[in-house]
Amino acid sequence: MLAALVTVPWLLTRPAPQAGGAAPVGAAPAATGVVAPGPDVPVSRPVSLDIPAIELARSPLGELGLNPDGTVEVPVDFATAGWFDLGPTPGQVGASVLLGHVDSTTGPAVFFRLRSLEAGDLVEVGLADGTVARFAVGSVETYPKAEFPARRVYTSVGSRDLRLVTCGGEFDPVSRSYESNVVVYATLVDTVPA
């Protein structure tokens, strides 16, 4: 389960990706006025996720926004992660965020093994235009839900980052929810054709 009761009090702006592919790159430069290092990645909707280290292959990605109360939506399908579409597309300057469930009442979900990732592991995000943006894991952190660092997770200062978020820690049978969140921090390495 994933209870992302995180309120995002700021709106992140980005060029809108086209339904079938790329749009012109329009990401703002880093706060220092220097464009973030790394390959140019088209603004294109993420459609699939591969994480070889945990044997996640060609998993489709949905789109997530905000609930009416301002909290971040979570995926309806336990087998599918979702991209927070108010942030940048993967590979653009900023933090692109993917959320997925760790489990359900019937067993493991899409991000069940996320907590076992290690620094250096690759995360590959397939984009609608056929590009694959490849990210290297930097760290995996666990936070009590009451101390979830929303600004750190949903923003980035001048780099091209990816965040993967799920539940973790102890399960509270009374609330039927995990007490913590697991966050994987990754940075763009390169792009390859699909």
From TrEMBL:
Organism superkingdom: Bacteria
Pfam families with a match to the protein in the record: Sortase
Transmembrane segments: none
Keyword entries, A-Z: Hydrolase
Keyword check for Secreted: no
SUPFAM superfamilies per UniProt: Sortase (SSF63817)
Molecular function GO labels: hydrolase activity
Gene3D superfamilies per UniProt: Sortase
InterPro entries documented for this protein: Sortase, Sortase_dom-sf, Sortase_F
Record-given protein name: Class F sortase
Organism of derivation: Pseudonocardia petroleophila
